[in-house]
Structures are given as structure tokens and as C-alpha cells.
Amino acid sequence: MFRDQKVGAIIVAAGSGERMGGIDKIFAPLGGVTVLEHTVQVFEKSPYIDFITVVLRKDNLEHGMSLLCPKNISKLTSICQGGMRRQDSTLAGLNALPQCQWVLVHDGARPLLDQGIILDGLEAAQETGAAAAAVPVTDTIKRTDEDGCVKETLQRQSLWAAQTPQVFRFDLIEAGFRHATDSVTDDVALVEALGIRVKLFNGSYDNIKLTTPTDLVLAQALCQQKGN
Ligand code: CTP
Ligand code: MG
Description:
With about 230 residues, the protein is of the alpha/beta class.
């Protein structure tokens, strides 16, 4: 379906990992390699991906290159420096990609995505030009007032936890950045702000983002269970 169109993947891994409490999560060990290599290999193996750009913090560039370059990752076209905010890192990755029609943005700290999610995302994005992986929230979500007391309990049926990959037609993500005024916590918010409808598609409860030290323990267990 996408054979005549080029697809680029931006792997954003330029955060400071503050909530991980001192461990550099991008280089944490997972299944015999680092978290970063794990993530990159999923995109390298996908038949739907043509180019990969990895975005790293300035002080991690050298380490990242020394890990990735010897691996001869054929689709890895660039390793570039990220920015202060997550969206600055995505933009740096976007600018580094060769010309392509579709772009997937994925968290480097989310190494357990499976192959199927890449095609699911590309298919979901055909409808409106933008799609995000998501799972139904499992906890009840409450809104509080300024005193920390419950103001409202939200209806769980319509609540989703957004994940990555998030998939874009190239011209839409470009327009999202051109018009961006606010800081956003995920990339599809940039095109939501343009009034573009973003399709959610099924992510996975295994597709966790390594945020706290507990997530690392969980990821290592999941990785072992999957046998890689
Ligand atoms: N990220 C990035 N550039 C930034 C901030 C975040 O590339 N300026 C990346 C992270 O490296 C990660 C992904 O965005 O792969 C999701 O962000 P998050 O889990 O918040 O990671 P960190 O920002 O590194 O962690 P923390 O917020 O705890 O500092
Ligand atoms: Mg962060």
C-alpha cells in the first residue's frame, strides 16, 4: 500500500529522564542491548519504514553514535541533536529526514512496540492524515480543585492514554509546526490545533514508556517473556 510513498521514522530520545532518578533510560540495558538500540531495531526491521532519524541530547550524541553506527542500520539516515522541549526534538528530527510523504514519531523510551503497530498506524492515518496509538485508561480519572479535592469524576468510556507511534502526512506535521504557538506534550496536539481530526488506533498495554524505575523492571520482564 505504501510502496510508492516514502515513510520516515523520527525516534525522539533527547529528554533528560528526570523521573527515572539518575539512570540514563535511553542507554539502560534491555534484552542484551540498550533501550535505544531496541527501539531503533523495530523500525529497521519494518518493511514499511524507509528512513530513520534518531534525536539525542547533545551530551549523548557521541555515545549514541558509538552504539548505533557500528550496527550498520541501513535505514538510519541521521542522528541529530534535540531541543529543550519534546516538540523541539521532533522538529529537529523532521528537518533531518530525507523527503518523505509519511512520518512516524516514536518515543525512544518506548522500546516494546511490536511490528503490527507500525502498519496499523499508517493505515489509521490514511483517513485524516494523522493518527495516534492509544489505549483505554484503566484507572478512574478525577479532576480536582485548587484544594486537591475532587471536583469531577470523568466518564472512563471516552478516555484514552495516548502512546506513540504517532503518524502524520508530512505536509500536516510541517503545517502543525509552522503554526505552533503552545508547548504540547505529544505531537498530534500540533495538528489537533489546526483543526485536523486525529484518528486513534489501538496501541498496546505492553507498549509502555519508560518513565520511572518501576517501568524499567517491567520492561525487562516483558522483554524476557517475549523472548528477546
Ligand atoms: N524527549 C526528547 N526531547 C525532549 C524531551 C523528551 O526527545 N526535550 C523524548 C524522550 O527522550 C523520550 C520521549 O521524548 O523518549 C518521551 O518523553 P519522557 O518520557 O518525558 O522522557 P524525558 O523527558 O527524558 O523524561 P522526564 O520527563 O522524566 O525528564
Ligand atoms: Mg519529559
